């Protein structure tokens, strides 16, 4: 599990984070001291009934599930990172996450004032649909359910062309007459996530929705876009060594990172 975490760190670092302003940690290595004290403080503030109500736990769930919400909540507070914030409590945390994480941080916001901290704020992101459509689910166990950052250009092209669910017409005549159903079309949804040119995206939506642009053309746009993004990411990731990962994960004084 820790090995997988290190590999994830490389992907994060490859996105362009500054080592002078970024601390990446693993619970396996960092829990203890101020972190563990904060976990205990949070656990004192949340009853068993609250945890069961928030997360739907039952008597059959293991005790790890009961204790984990406090572990996830703790890094929302600056006291967990004395090497960065010292003894300050007036620092608000901004948490980008998917909607499934919302219960953890609603609990955290309830606890924060009782511990003397500011409530964290959230930016909640939408899920990527699986390539097979909204009814499916992305999964690492199903390599055809998503495009991964270690896919080759050929794999990206094959996945999009073979597995990306289309909202286009069943026949050319039907498509020309009725246009594509953009509400279910996966290539169109992916373009909305990744295409930065808003005017080009809007034009594709108009043309495809009206049937003047074909599914194959939309998929070709997505293939070219993802191939470029993934290719650039892979080149950047190749430059991330184990020593660089260690530098990001090292507990070191970072008070200067707070200077404006």
Spell out the blueprint of helices and strands.
Layout: H1 2-13, H2 27-30, H3 33-45, H4 48-55, H5 63-73, H6 82-85, E1 94-98, H7 102-111, E2 121-125, H8 153-163, H9 172-178, H10 186-194, H11 198-209, H12 215-238, H13 242-249
Parallel strand pairs: 1-2
Helix pairs in contact: 3-5, 5-7, 8-12, 10-12
Task: Describe the 3D structure.
The protein is mainly alpha-helical. 51% of the residues lie in helices and 4% in strands. The chain has helices at 2-13, 27-30, 33-45, 48-55, 63-73, 82-85, 102-111, 153-163, 172-178, 186-194, 198-209, 215-238, 242-249; strands spanning 94-98, 121-125. Strands 1-2 form a two-stranded parallel ribbon. β1, α7 (102-111) and β2 (121-125) form a beta-alpha-beta unit. The longest helix has 24 residues, at 215-238. The protein starts with a helix and ends in an 11-residue tail after the last helix. The model has no long low-confidence stretch (mean pLDDT 94).
């Amino acid at each position: 599990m820790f090995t997988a975490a290190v590999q994830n760190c490389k992907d994060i670092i490859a996105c362009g984070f500054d080592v002078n302003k970024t601390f990446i940690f693993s619970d396996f290595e960092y829990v203890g001291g101020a972190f563990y004290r904060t976990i205990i403080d949070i656990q004192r503030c949340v009853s068993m009934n609250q945890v069961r109500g928030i997360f739907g736990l039952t008597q059959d769930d293991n005790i790890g599930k009961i204790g984990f919400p406090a572990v996830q909540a703790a890094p929302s507070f600056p006291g967990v990172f004395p090497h960065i914030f010292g003894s300050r409590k007036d620092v608000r945390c901004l948490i980008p996450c998917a909607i499934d994480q919302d219960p953890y941080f609603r609990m955290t916001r309830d606890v924060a004032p009782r511990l003397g901290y500011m409530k964290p704020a959230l930016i909640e992101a939408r899920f990527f649909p699986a390539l097979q459509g909204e009814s499916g689910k992305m999964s690492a166990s199903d390599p055809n359910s998503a495009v991964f950052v270690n896919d080759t250009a050929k794999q990206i092209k094959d996945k999009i062309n073979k597995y990306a669910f289309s909202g286009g017409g069943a026949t050319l005549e039907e498509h020309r007459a009725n246009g594509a159903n953009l509400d279910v079309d996966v290539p169109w949804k992916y373009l909305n996530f990744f295409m930065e040119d808003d005017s080009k995206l809007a034009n594709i939506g108009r043309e495809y929705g009206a049937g003047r642009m074909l599914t194959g053309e939309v998929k070709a746009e997505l293939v070219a876009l993802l191939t470029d993004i993934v290719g650039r990411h892979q080149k950047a990731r190749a430059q991330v060594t184990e020593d660089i990962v260690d530098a990001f994960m090292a507990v070191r004084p970072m008070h200067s990172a707070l200077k404006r």
